[in-house]
User: What shape does this take?
Amino acid sequence: MNEVAPGHVIDSATGIDVSLPLAGPGARSYAFIADWHIRIVLALAWYVVGALLYNGRPSLSPPLTNVPQWFGLIVAPALGIYFLYHYVVELAMRGSTPGKRMAGVRIVARDGSGPSAGALLLRNVFRVVDSLPLFYGVGLVTVVVTRDNVRLGDMAAGTLLVYERGRAGVPLASDHPGALDAPGTEILAELLERWPVLGAEARVHLARQFWLRYCGDTATLGDDDAEWHERLQQLVQGSA
Amino acid sequence: MSSTPRVRALTAALLKRSGLWRDADARARRYARGRTDDAADALRLADDYRLLAHDLARARSLIPGTRTREFLEDAYGHAHATLHQGAWRMGSTLQRLLREQIPESVRWLKPYILWTSVIFVLSVCAGFALVHRFPELIALFASPDLIQSVEQGKLWTDGLLNVVPSSVLSAQILANNISVTLVAYCAGILFGLGTVYIVGLNGLMLGAIFAFTGQHRLAGGLFNFVVAHGCVELSVMCLSGAAGAALGEALIRPGPDGRIESFRAAALRTGPVLIACALLLVGAGLLEGFVSPDPRFSLFTRVVLGVGYWLVMLALLSGRLFRARASLAGAG
Assistant: This one.
């Protein structure tokens, strides 16, 4: 059995397909909402700090007459931050944004490579249509109905939004083929990863269950969590 | 666990290589983010790619539902993206855009530009003829305030600078023009009909308002206001309309690769023109904010500025503007 994971599959020069897990409407919405909050906070922060500095007193009110400096230094940059956020940040972060990072997704070209600057600009131009009539209605509908979960901007620019997978999930190598199989190695790696956030009782309980399943009897072993940690570490290093 | 000793041994041998995967993944991510330019490391990326492909194939077969396989899929995807990523240099990207991509895109759009301009000119004539023959129809194209102002013998643009400063006016006009341009382009997605509607409506409005102001002997004043920024602004309207029409045609008459692929190809070919439009509108916005409403500028100055900027636009679209400078620099 040599199945490729579901998602967008790309041929590669090695003969082993690259599989990209596609982000759906949920991850897209999460990323957008996170980015929306970031840009609104940045724009407001610019306005507030600028207004306080301009007025020289704790007041956010604009001047009563039309003053070009007020518009040019305070209002226009704040609007620029809000409206140009996606264009600028996606270019600077090569297809990512803080919101996309939080949602664990990134933009790629359809051939799996990083998106070009032109593609990033184009996918943002089409936000004009995707955001219609309200709350990205057109974009959400196209994401739901298209095979690759893409909005119109992605269709036009030839881009996809894909998940970043399993960055923390690399297992630790085991030199004990007889003691641990692959799932065992992974369970152990996960247990050690979570060790600092577990309570002492939970640590001992989980370690004992693990030992019972993979290594044998635990009757003679004590309840000191530090000892259990040491024992599991030795198992990882192959000296248990 | 029900796996055979052979599978367990193979799996264990595979898992022993996890340190190599971690290193390969870290290297690919460093390169992807541009945090290293070490040549020896770069050469190792190709080896990493083969290593990850080999081990992923084994993981898919030996341990399909595990985090190890997930990790390898992700690391392999990243290595693939990093190896196939083109150079990311903003300077050369911008140069290529201005020297090659915009002129190429404009050349491809020539028939669309011609037809969109014809539609626009016909709409202007139609709007002019309609309001000239039936003056009451101006209510369809202009706001009551504008009509009242013209009927009182005053252009609504008179004294504009007393109400709004030039910088504010420029920014407002720029934002409005860019959004109209983007909408005219994106409306092409409605099989080109949206673009035709927007170009036609703008043409009708322009013709109608000129006819209406002409009836009140204010057409000269309006021309005086429009000429500096209008030459480029109206051309940009036709350009973005042409790009939108190309999108529409890609959807109406897709090639052998299907409608979505055809739409994608058209969008990527027309994208550079849209960037040119946005750049040109910045200048037009400045002219409309600082020159057009300012009575100190004579008609001659306005015409020179308007026509001069239009010629700059032609040079940009044909690629001569930046190519000429490059060859001069090369000669120097």
